Amino acid sequence: MAEGQDIPAWIALFMGLYALGAAIGELRSPGSWAAMLDGFENNEALRFLTGIVVLALGAAIYLVNPYDPADWLSITVTVMGAGMVLEGVVILGFGRPFLHFASAMIGTVNRAWALLSAGLGIVLICVAMLRF
């Protein structure tokens, strides 16, 4: 089991792995993110389920992470969790317009978003590894 001070690093590690894996998937199969968002935008049940999952994961991260104002990683992870909660609420309340906006943003620069996601993933993984 992780120690209290290691929890932000573990969360950063898994978020980094997620971001890197998603980026690799998009780079290997360009357009998959746009197709996924298209599916979300046109499927009410999938939007609802996605909103609940994002909200629940964000709440879990926010509540489990031991907030320490002296630790920048702890603050960052707390903000990430709160951002996920907000995103989940927005998907639940304004799913179609929000996902249409996201689809328009991703559709124009797929490769750039994937590279940004890969870079963020690598940074989060490295930060986490330096904390262990």
From TrEMBL:
Keyword Transmembrane: yes
Domain of life: Bacteria
Record carries keyword Transmembrane helix: yes
Keywords assigned by UniProt, alphabetized: Membrane, Transmembrane, Transmembrane helix
Transmembrane segments: 7-25, 45-65, 72-92, 112-130
Protein name (Swiss-Prot/TrEMBL): DUF2065 domain-containing protein
Organism the protein comes from: Erythrobacter westpacificensis
